[in-house]
C-alpha cells in the first residue's frame, strides 16, 4: 500500500513530495531497511542529492544519490531496477573480504522439506551436471512430474559445495524480481562459489518471468558472482522461457521415467513388471499418485480403488489427526480452491472460522506462504475433495460443489488473478484432450489462443507502445491488455495522452506532431469514396461528396470515439480525461444527431461505442439518445436500409462490417435487443455467417461474432467461425514484419491486426469468465478418476466409446462445414446447392450440441451411471452417426 501511495505521489505530487516518495520507494522496494543482514540510513543533503549509509555486521559504506535522477527512474519501474542495482548492489572491497555466511534460513528449510523421502532422479543428476559445467537450464514437464523436487535435490547438493541460491516461485503472490533482488543482496558477498537462481512455476506469471529475465541481464552488469539459472515450467511456457532466457539448455522432465526409481525405493526391491505397468497407467505421470499407489500396494498387497486412494490421501493430508465438523468444512473449501491453485487470502479462512484455521495450520494440514495459503499440491486437493464428498458428505452436504466455490471466489477477484489461475492450470492438457462432452475442450483451446494473442500484443507494445504512431492500433491493443489486467497498456496510454490534445481549444481531439500514421487511411478512404460516387444509381448530397468532405475532421471524430473507448476501459484516475472527452462529444455532434460525416455511419457508431464505454446510455445522455435515433432513421433522412447500414466509404468497408458495428453500438447504448432495427440487423448478420471467416473478411467476422454474442450470449452457435478466426490471427505469419502497415502501401486498414486481436481477446475473455464453471469442471477431473472399481466395467467401456465417438462426430461435422465455406470462398459465387448442404451440416451440429449436453449430465453422476442412463444418449449418437457416416458408421452397442 505504501509503494502504491509513493508511485501516485511521484506522478501527481509537487517537487518535494515526488522526491520524498522516490526515496521511500527505493528504500522499501530495494533496500530492505528492516533486514538484519543489510540496514540503510539516509540523510537528506538538500534538494539535489541524499546520502545513503549501507551497513552490515562487518562494514559500512556511504553513497550519494542524485534525487532528480532517482525521481526520473522511479517513474519507470524498469529504470528504477537498474538504478537500484547500480547504486546499491555493488559494495566496496571491505564487503568482498567478508566470509560470513549469509543465508535465508527459512527458504533453505523449505527446500530441504521438499527433498524429504524423495528419490534421487536421473533428472536431478542431469541438472546438476549442466550447472557445474556452467550451463543454465530450463526444466520442462507436466504438473507433478518431479521438476521441483529434482531441482530441490540439486540445490541441497550444491549448497554443500559452497554455492548459494535464490528461489522465486511465480505461483506465489508477491514473488517477483523484487524478491530476487533482495535475495541477491543477502547472498552476493558470500564465498567465491556460484549462485543458482531457481524460477519455479514460470507458466504462472509470464509478466513476472519477463521482468526477472530483464533483471538478470541487469544483475550481470553489477555483480561478480556467476549467476546460473534453473527455469522450471510446463510445455506451454517454453516459448516465453526461450524468449527471456535464450541461453538456457532444455531438459525434459517426464514423471513417467522417474516412476521405476520411486517404486523400487518404496519396495526396497524391484517389483513385478505387471505391477509397475499398472502404476504407470494409473497415475498418468503424476508422481504424487504413483507414490500413494505404491505405498498402498506394499501395505495391502493389492491396488486401491479411487475411494481407497482418496482415503490414503486424506490420512496423509491431515497427518492422522481428527477434525471436527467446522474444520472439515474449511478443509473442503480450501481444497476446492487449491485444486485450481487459486491464491487464497489468509483472511478468507480466518473469516470462515478462525479456530479451525488455527488448528489446520497447527497440524500442518494447510500451508501458509506470507498472507496466502493452500493445502499443498493440487492433486492432493482433488483427492481430499473426493474423500470428503464420499465419507464426510453428511457434514459438507450444505456447501456448494467444489467448482462452484472456486468460481464464486474468482468472480470477486481481479482479471489478473483469474488469468494467473488459468495460467497455472493444465489448460493445454485439456485443450488437446480427445474428449469434449460439453465444450470444455473448445474453451481450453480458445484460452490457449488468447494467451498466444496476448503475448503477441504485449510483445509489440513493449517494442513500440506507439504502434508505429498509429492511434487505432494503439487503442485496440490497450483495450485488449487492460481487459485482462496486463500492465503493458500503461505506456500506450502515456503515448495517447501525449499525442492527442483534448483540452477543448478545438472542438475535436487534435494531434501533436508528427501526424498519426492512420492519416493515410483517410487519404485512401477518399479515393474509395470517389470511386463509389461513379457507380450508376449512387447519388449523394453535395456536402457528402468526397471532394467536399473534411477528412481531417472525419479522422479526429473517429479518434474521439477511440479515446472515449480506452478511457472507459481504464476509468480509475481518468475522470478529468472522461469529462474533457464528453464535452468534446457534445460539441462535435451534428444537429441531426449524427457525427461527421453523416455519409459514413460507422464514425457515429464508433463514437457511440466510446460513449457507452464511459457509461453513457440512451437513458442518461441526450447525445447518445439522439445519435441512436439517427442511426435507426430510414434512408434518405438516416442511414438505415432494410436491416443493414451501408458504409458510405465504397470498397474500404463492407455492409457486413458496418452493420455489425452499428448494431453493436445500439445494444451497448441500451437499445433493447428486441427493438426492430436490432433484430433486423442481427438477422442480416446471421444470414452472412458463411462469410464471417473468409479471407479478407476477418474484421467483418470479428465484429459479427462480437455482436451476436453480445445479444445472444451463446458461444456454441459461433464456435466454428470463432475457431477459424483465432487460427488465422494467431498464425505467426500475421505478426512478422510490420504488424502495422501504412495504408498507402497496403491499401487496407492499418489497424487491422490490432483491431481483430483486440476483439477476439475480449470475446474469448468474456466467454471464459462466463463459462468458468464449465472450464474449471473440465480441469478438476482427477487423473485417477477413470481407473476405479466404483463403476461397472461394461458401463465404463461404453462410456469411453460414447466420448470417443462424440469427438469423431465433432471432427467430421466441423470439417464438412469448413470445406463448404472454403469452396464458396474460392468460387466467389453463391452456389445454392453448396449453401443448402452447409445448412444441413449446421443442423447436424445443433443436434450434436444436444448430445453433448446429455453427456455433460452423465459426467456429473459418473459414479451412479447405469445402462438405462446411457440408452438415450447412445441412441442419439448412433442416429447422428448414421446420418454423417452412412454405411461406415460403427454402431455403439450396449452389452
How many DSSP H or I helices?
A: 41
- Class by SSE composition: alpha/beta
Largest sheet: 5 strands, parallel
Number of strands: 15
pLDDT < 50 stretches: 33-38, 91-106, 782-791
Q: What proportion of the residues is helical, as a percent range?
A: 55-70%
What's this, in brief?
This protein has 895 residues and is an alpha/beta fold.
Can you characterise this structure?
- The protein is α/β, with parallel strands linked by helices.
- The chain is built from 41 helices and 15 strands.
- The strands form five sheets. A five-stranded parallel sheet has the order 5-6-7-4-8, sandwiched between helices. A three-stranded antiparallel sheet has the order 1-2-3.
- A hairpin with a 4-residue loop joins strand 2 and strand 3 (60-66).
- Helix 6 packs across helix 8, helix 13 crosses helix 14 and helix 16 crosses helix 18 (354-362).
- The longest helix has 35 residues, at 793-827.
- The radius of gyration is 31 Å and the shape is globular.
Which terms would index this structure?
895 residues; alpha/beta; five-stranded parallel sheet; three-stranded antiparallel sheet; 41 helices; 7% strand; globular
